[in-house]
Amino acid sequence: MRNKILVTGATGTIGSFLIDNLRKKNVDFVTLVRDASKAEKLEKNGIQTVVGDLGDEKSLISAMKDVGSIFLLSTTSPQSPELQGNVVKAAKAKGIKHIVKIAARGSSVDADFNIGRWHGITEKEIMGSGIPYTFIHAHSFMQNLFFDAGSIENENAIYSSQGDGRIPMVDARDIASVAADVLTEPGHEGKTYVLTGPEAISYYDIARELSRLLGREISYIAQSAEDGYNAMLASGMPNWLVDDMTLLNKRYARNEAADVSPDVEIITGRKPIALHQFLKDFKNRFN
What we know:
Elements lengths: L3 E4 L5 H13 L3 E5 L2 H9 L4 E3 L5 H7 L3 E6 L7 H15 L3 E7 L9 H16 L3 E6 L10 H7 L1 E4 L11 H13 L6 E5 L7 H12 L4 E4 L2 H10 L4 H15 L9 H6 L6 H7 L6
Helix pairs in contact: 1-7, 3-4, 4-5, 8-12, 9-10
């Protein structure tokens, strides 16, 4: 019976949390990984795994044996539309019944930032394939704050070029919870969900919560757009991602992405995780 779920991106942030959710639901799933050593590690933890490559359509078709639905997530890059498109083509060939795709808030073929446009290209291909789908558009992850752990620990400071703008960051655990429900419950086909946290927050709010949690003053250093751009380049981020983040941070600074969505609560039946709870749960990452 073809009721197995194929999970791509299983070793990433969302994928790892999704695996935990699917195990708790006691459903049949298999993870697709490219690295044989990662596959071995997952197998040792009791997780069924197949080795495959998004660049190899034949390996994808093989991985879809007994699969009825697919969780589609991969590392974002200029190659994303081609690689995820291979999954869509293989899924169509295998008669897959449902694709659940993670994308970014604002994704569309007409998006003015690379990440959103690349996701939009794949979404258009999925819709054109005739395969029932659910698109999950997630806002900025709370887990992205882990990248600031170094400056928090060494400088008691957190940097951003978002000014005093507010955005409703979402915990990746909530994204995984929604994905698990959508993959295992009927009624989500043909829908697009926007996932946010419970409230729009600024980096001043983040610094204040960190100060309270860590018992020392954490300052927010508001950078200019130019300084933020140069800092991201210096960190080794690819140019296309620096361009995207600069554009988005300008938008965030103008409070153009502050709307809170009810979709996490509608699907899971509970409020999304708030900033203070996220920071408390991951305190060890910021000490």
